[in-house]
Design a protein that fits this description.
Elements (H helix, E strand, L loop, with lengths): L3 E9 L6 H17 L4 E3 L17 H16 L7 E10 L2 E10 L2 E7 L11 H4 L9 E5 L2 H7 L3 E5 L2 E3 L4 E6 L1 H4 L4 H7 L4 E6 L8 H13 L4 E9 L7 E2 L3 E4 L2 E5 L8 E9 H9 L2 H7 L7 E3 L25 H20 L4 E4 L4 H22 L3 H11 L9 H8 E7 L5 H14 L2 E6 L1 H15 L12 H29 L7 E2 L5 H6 L20 H14 L5 H6 L18 H5 L3 H13 L4 H11 L6 H18 L34 H13 L1
Parallel strand pairs: 1-2, 1-11, 2-3, 8-16, 9-10, 10-11, 17-18, 17-20, 18-19
Antiparallel strand pairs: 1-15, 3-4, 4-5, 6-7, 8-9, 11-12, 11-13, 13-14
Helix pairs in contact: 1-2, 2-4, 10-11, 10-18, 11-13, 11-14, 11-18, 15-16, 22-23, 22-24, 23-24
């Protein structure tokens, strides 16, 4: 009867401009889809060139190489007898579009340009692409000669159209269009489209996955239909981790769920679904039928092909499943770990080096690396040949098999405790014990000689010797002496990253990991060019509050008992002299605010778009039980002074895993000046006026 259609979607770990690797992963996904009986295969957004090409989209080379890959796909026997839907940039009449190219048996059926471009947060699609603003309009696209020679076609349809097969109708959405208030699937569904497809380049943010799932399910809950979503996965060359979650939904319920975090470069979901379930679901929604009778029709591209078999009465179809979401602690354990693995293997380095202070932030970073080692061993155990090959190359041993996370950790992870006369024995012991429990190669060293040498140079030149505050020095002297220690640790971290393996008789170098959290960056509570300066930072987009919960998760799930004492100790920089052998300096006292307050300031500043006055107005209600309006005003002013004084530090912030929507990352997410009038005179005067009125 032709009612049971079999379709496939996938999550691919594509890499910007890695045309060879991207082609191989696309072909592998098509092979898997066909082997499971699929007659249609959907891939991620811009999968041919990789989503994160950024300004490389301006280059004609990117367009050329994308068409060269398309040529290979069209010629491949793997793409025969299956409708393939791939993503790439296309130049049409000298305008660049983000497109889906849909083809079957060496014939291009339709090039569908993106209608709604993502242009907020980390996305800048309007910088490189133009949206297709001609609704339900199709033009002729003249194919490049290399494609004409394969397809025998001179022109193909280009525009906003849908495909009609022998038994159903398919319509495409591209990523942002699902999130738009006027999503195309609404009108397409009213016009009889039964299968909606969405190719995405959607990145991970803590606690975001449910929003994507809810949008997909709601797309077909009101209107009926089958919704297929593909997404990129992995680190494709920058701060983002694309988190997969490929899925298939029907009539408002999930029928297939892909993984959010994994080390598999290619993941394919296949589902067989009954079109009659869509039709009967729609039949009883009278409001839909009335709206459908008035809809403007879409141009239809006829395809002489079926997604079903003629005799499919006995073919089993997929049933709804319950989506399983990760907890935020699991997301922190898995997302940054997968991102680190991609960065490590693609940078062709031999491992990581982390300055391990014995505090929560560096310990959380160490735990993420340990989680990465767990993921690698698990992937190898499950037969992932790609991960095994990468692990062998990284450790320079062609026979090696990573089976024990602690043993693998020792091969790829070096931790270093850099003591000074201001360090306590407690933090030294905590760092050493944690290193033992995760298995890292641990180094203890003392930086006092280097600090004295640097300060000595200053004293020789100026005939002045700076002192800490507790020894009678000024605040300027006190801060400068702290910064010298912090910066020397950065210099030593890079020295040991370059030469530790050389000293051990091993090849390669190490990537330096930073461990400043998102709240400290927002407040500017870090020394510019200290240990926060590193190659990459897996926790730079994660709040202190979430990191504490993650540490507790690691205690329970990884049995890292060393973390208990780290959790109970007050956060401290240990840059000022000890008092009676004990740490007197604490982070929150230094900052003049708590980490919990910092998280609130960050969310109001970035997510709620609040300046000083608006933040004050919101907080006098939020904190009315614990603070007077005058106290709230004082706190808000202090935050904005410190934020603006230190904003310049964000311009050199180590590239960090993006996990929070209030990240102060200056690269492209949080675009602000870095030279402020830090008195905020007009804004603070508005606050004072309101305080007096209250």
């Amino acid at each position: 009867m032709g009612r049971a259609v079999t379709v496939a979607t996938c999550a691919l770990n594509q890499w910007a401009l890695d045309f060879e690797g991207n082609l191989e992963r696309i072909l592998r996904s098509i092979d898997i889809a066909k082997s499971k009986g699929a007659r249609y295969r959907l891939g991620p957004e811009l999968e041919i060139c990789g989503y994160g090409c950024s300004d490389h989209y301006y280059e004609s080379d990117t367009l050329l190489h994308s068409f060269q890959v398309l040529e290979k796909l069209l010629e491949s026997p793997a793409t025969q007898d299956i409708i393939c839907d791939v993503g790439m940039p296309v130049l049409h009449r000298n305008v660049r579009y983000n497109c889906r190219v849909i083809f079957l048996n060496k014939k291009i059926l339709l090039i569908r340009p993106k209608i709604s471009l993502a242009n907020a947060g980390n996305y800048r699609e309007l910088r490189w692409f133009t949206p297709w603003n001609k609704a339900r309009h199709v033009e002729e696209y003249f194919l490049p000669r290399i494609i004409q020679e394969v397809t025998g076609q001179e022109t193909v349809p280009f525009g906003d159209a849908v495909l009609v097969t022998k038994e159903t109708c398919l319509g495409a959405e591209i990523c942002e269009e699902l999130w738009a208030p006027n999503s195309p699937h609404i009108e397409m569904g009213l016009d009889g489209v039964e299968i909606f497809t969405n190719s995405s380049g959607s990145h991970h943010v803590l606690r975001k996955a449910h929003a994507r799932v809810d949008l997909v399910n709601s797309a077909t809950a009101k209107n009926g239909g089958i919704y297929i979503l593909a997404n990129q996965k992995g680190c494709d060359g920058d701060r983002l981790y694309y988190d997969g979650c490929a899925m298939i939904s029907m009539n408002g319920e999930t029928v297939a769920q892909g993984s959010q975090f994994s080390l598999d470069d290619v993941e394919v979901l296949v589902a067989t679904l009954d079109l009659e379930d869509v039709r009967s679901y729609r039949a009883e929604i009278s409001s839909r039928s009335l709206a459908a009778s008035k809809v403007n029709p879409y141009p239809r591209v006829k395809v002489d092909f079926a997604l079903s078999c003629p005799d499919d009465v006995a073919v089993p179809t997929c049933m709804p499943i319950q989506w399983r979401h990760h907890s935020p602690e699991e997301e922190i354990s898995l997302g940054p770990a997968c991102w680190l693995w991609d960065y490590l293997r693609r940078s062709k380095q031999a491992g990581f080096l982390l300055p391990l202070s014995g505090g929560i932030d560096s310990s959380a970073t160490a735990c993420i690396v340990y989680s990465m080692c767990h993921q690698v061993c698990l992937a190898v155990k499950n037969g992932n040949a790609d991960v095994l090959a990468d692990a062998r190359r990284i450790v320079n041993d062609d026979t090696y098999i990573p089976e024990d996370p602690r043993e693998f950790c020792r091969r790829v992870f070096t931790t270093c405790y850099m003591a000074s006369e201001n360090s306590s024995q407690d933090t030294c012991n905590r760092a050493k014990l944690l290193a033992e429990q995760i298995g890292s190669y641990h180094i203890n060293l003392n930086i006092d000689a280097a600090v004295k040498a640097v300060v000595g140079i200053f004293s020789v030149v100026t005939s002045r010797t700076p002192q800490f505050s507790v020894h009678g020095g000024s605040s300027r002297e006190n801060l400068a002496l702290q910064n010298v220690q912090a910066r020397i640790r950065m210099v030593l971290a890079y020295l040991f990253a370059q030469l530790t393996l050389w000293a051990r008789g091993m090849p390669g170098g190490l990537l330096v990991l930073g461990s400043a959290n998102v709240d400290e960056s927002l407040r500017g509570y870090l020394t510019k060019y200290d240990c926060s300066s590193a190659d990459i930072n897996p926790i730079g987009g994660i709040s202190k509050t979430d990191l504490k919960h993650f540490i507790q998760y690691c205690i329970e799930n990884f049995q890292l008992t060393a973390l208990r004492s780290i959790m109970s100790a007050p956060p401290t920089a240990e840059l000022e002299p000890l008092v009676d052998g004990q740490v007197a300096q604490t982070d929150e006292a230094d900052m003049g605010m708590t980490y919990a307050e910092l998280s609130i300031y960050g969310k109001l500043r970035k997510i709620a778009k609040a300046g000083p006055y608006s933040m004050f107005c919101k907080l006098i209600n939020m904190w009315k039980e614990i603070c007077t309006p005058r106290e709230v005003a004082s706190k808000v002013k202090h935050f904005f002074r410190m934020y603006s004084v230190n904003r310049h530090k964000m311009t050199t912030l180590t590239p960090s895993y993006h996990a929070e929507n209030y990240s102060p990352d200056d690269n492209r997410f949080d675009l602000r000046p870095f030279l402020y009038n830090t008195s905020w005179s007009w804004q603070f005067r508005c606050i004072d006026k309101q305080v007096n009125a209250l």
